[in-house]
Amino acid sequence: MKQILNTEEFCLKDSAVCLGKFDGIHRGHRLLIEEIQKYKKQKLQAVVFTFALHPYTLFSRGEAKLIDTTEEKIEKLEKLDVDVLVSYPFTKETASMEPEDFIKEVLIKKLDAKVVVVGKDFHFGYQRKGNVTLLRKHAAEYGYKVVSLEKIQEDNHVISSTRVRHEIKSGNMKKVTRLLGEPYFILGEVIHGKQLGRTIGMPTINQEVEEAKIIPPKGVYVSKVFLPEGEYRGVTNIGNKPTVSGEHKLGVETHIIGYNGDLYGKTVKVSLCEFVRSEQKFSSLEELKAQMHRDMEYAKNIKISLQED
């Protein structure tokens, strides 16, 4: 997949492009992507267009927590056989662009869009004045086709990135899997920890997680770990290690069941499939070890689904 990240200097030819924020690549996003795939047989490139920076960051003091890092988004889109990802710079100049200018300067001049796929409620341009009606108004003038799709629902509620974030914050990982079409995952480099796990016979990997990424509640999760050697079950702890004195920084730590290799410095994908229990403090390392063994047995024996709906 070609990646055009955080630059305005590009020029594509013959694109079927879907537009949106695409945070999480949930099942609604996948519907848009499936639509642009249909035009590959007409020799059009399947292009996903989004912005390099969440718009919330420009207009508030805080930073929006994202479901996917850039690397995680790339990983998902490559699996979905997208030809080009355009992550366009979102600056104050971009935010102030009139919708008609966005159509002319970006959709036509830069993307050479022949097909534009959006959700029914899609808005764009200055003060979100652009919509599906405006896209259709200029379609004949610029020679593109507009396809607008209805939102899809789960449990009688629209699937959206906002809803996915809410479920992640609540630790409802099974629901998150249904909304995304795959489990929520952390793709991060394995870093050195205190190696406490090795002293109790349960070595773990510690991962760095980008500050902007939303993290589920502290606690223990059944996980699936994807390595070059294959897929492994895991037990993942998100927390501050309350049993270990001096540990305060939030971390993501996984014991990979049945694996003893060296993963330091490598990027590993850990999918969080099910919440097991909240973080707790034990009176001794022996108690912690006993509970970790119970968690491991639970993780080994439960049935988990990693398949898309």
Main features:
309 residues, alpha/beta, 6-stranded parallel β-sheet, 6-stranded antiparallel beta barrel, 10 helices
Shape: elongated
What is the helix content?
A: 25-40%
Element pattern in H and E: EEHEHEHHEHHEEEHHEHEEEEEH
Helix-strand makeup class: alpha/beta
Q: How many H/I helices?
A: 10
Structure summary, number of beta strands: 14
Mean pLDDT: 90
Radius of gyration: 22 Å
Distance between the termini: 24 Å
Could you describe the largest sheet, including whether it forms a barrel?
6 strands, parallel
Uncertain parts: none
Give the strand order, joined by hyphens, for the main sheet. 1-4-3-2-5-6
Could you characterize what this model shows?
- It contains ten helices and 14 strands.
- A hairpin with a 2-residue loop joins strand 7 and strand 8.
- 32% of the residues are buried.
- The strands form three sheets. A six-stranded parallel sheet has the order 1-4-3-2-5-6. Strands 9-10-13-12-11-14 form a six-stranded antiparallel barrel. A two-stranded antiparallel ribbon has the order 7-8.
- Helix 7 runs antiparallel to helix 8.
- With 309 residues, the protein is an alpha/beta fold.
Question: What's a quick, concise take on this entry?
Answer:
The protein has 309 residues and is of the alpha/beta class.
Strands, helices and their partners?
Elements: E1 2-5, E2 15-19, H1 27-37, E3 45-51, H2 70-79, E4 84-88, H3 92-95, H4 99-108, E5 113-119, H5 132-137, H6 139-142, E6 145-149, E7 153-154, E8 157-158, H7 161-170, H8 173-180, E9 184-191, H9 196-199, E10 205-207, E11 219-227, E12 230-239, E13 251-256, E14 267-278, H10 285-301
Parallel strand pairs: 1-4, 2-3, 2-5, 3-4, 5-6
Antiparallel strand pairs: 7-8, 9-10, 9-14, 10-13, 11-12, 11-14, 12-13
